[in-house]
Amino acid sequence: MTPSLDLQDMIYRRLTSDPTITWLVFDEAPAQQPMPFIEFGPEDVQEDDDECITGTNHQVQIDLFHSQSGKAEIKEMMGIVKRSLHNYPGELTDNALHSIRFVRSTVLKEPDGINYHGVVQFEALVEEPTPE
Length: 132
What we know:
Layout: H1 3-17, E1 24-26, E2 37-47, E3 54-66, H2 72-85, E4 96-109, E5 116-128
Parallel strand pairs: 1-2
Antiparallel strand pairs: 2-3, 3-5, 4-5
């Protein structure tokens, strides 16, 4: 499994097994999905090799959507996702997770002027197995 897919799978397992997260989690939400929900956003991957280690640095975005008036609910959701993933010692299937840490969060009002979009970004360092 590629490091990117392995990381997404671990994040998905974490978010869907965390009892404090009560919203559906999607790779890509279906059109007209009722809110609230979580969706994987963009990911940027860069090489992060070191002497005898093949590694990648992943900038991962988790998007949250909520239809409540005001920002309180989306901010609460964002805080729960941050607590769930920041420094989580997760296990990957084919690669090794060195770290995952919170980087930043942003609250946006959707173009409809009603709904809110929360963006929570994480940085993860992944080591790939050494080819034999």
